[in-house]
């Protein structure tokens, strides 16, 4: 439970970067789905750092393999976010910041946290 709460806190910080980027891009005319993709990618950098060292207490050196696995999870998350935002904000006309909160929570619980725990920051057997 501590790990999920810490990952959630790291996710909240990453979401602050994500939402700030989203607002900046949308308010300057970037289409919502594209803005959501770039914003999620920016948040991923914050997410990796906080989750590696705080949530999952992974003090091993950063490896190309780990960054690659995180990249796959982050790109999948960004694509899921773009799709979910297209559905909620564009098709269902939910205001985009409210849609962002809904989509972020759903994607975190269903995909991002389980994927990071199992694929990116899994502890190798001793």
Helix residue percentage: over 70%
What's the total helix number? 4
Separation of termini?
A: 22 Å
Q: C-alpha Rg, in Å?
A: 15 Å
Largest sheet: none
Summarize the helix and strand pattern as letters. HHHH
Structural class: mainly alpha
Folded structure, characterized:
The protein has helices at about 1-25, 30-55, 65-90, 95-120. The protein has 4 helices and no strands. Helix 1 (about 1-25) packs across helix 4 (about 95-120). The radius of gyration is 15 Å and the shape is elongated. It has one domain. With about 130 residues, it is mainly alpha-helical. The protein is about 80% helix and about 0% strand.
Keywords:
126 residues, mainly alpha
Secondary-structure blueprint of this entry?
Elements: H1 2-27, H2 32-55, H3 64-91, H4 96-120
Summarize the structure.
This protein has about 130 residues and is mostly helical. The chain has helices at about 1-25, 30-55, 65-90, 95-120.
């Amino acid at each position: 439970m501590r790990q999920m709460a810490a990952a959630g806190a790291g996710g909240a910080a990453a979401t602050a970067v994500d939402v700030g980027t989203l607002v900046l891009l949308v308010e300057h005319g970037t289409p919502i789905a594209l803005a959501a993709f770039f914003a999620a990618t920016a948040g991923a950098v914050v997410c990796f750092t906080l989750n590696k060292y705080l949530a999952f207490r992974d003090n091993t050196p950063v490896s190309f393999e780990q960054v690659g696995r995180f990249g796959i999870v982050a790109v999948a998350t960004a694509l899921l976010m773009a799709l979910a935002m297209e559905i909620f904000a564009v098709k269902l006309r939910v205001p985009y910041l409210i849609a962002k909160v809904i989509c972020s929570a759903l994607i975190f619980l269903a995909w991002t946290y389980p994927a990071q725990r199992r694929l990116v920051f899994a502890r190798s057997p001793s």
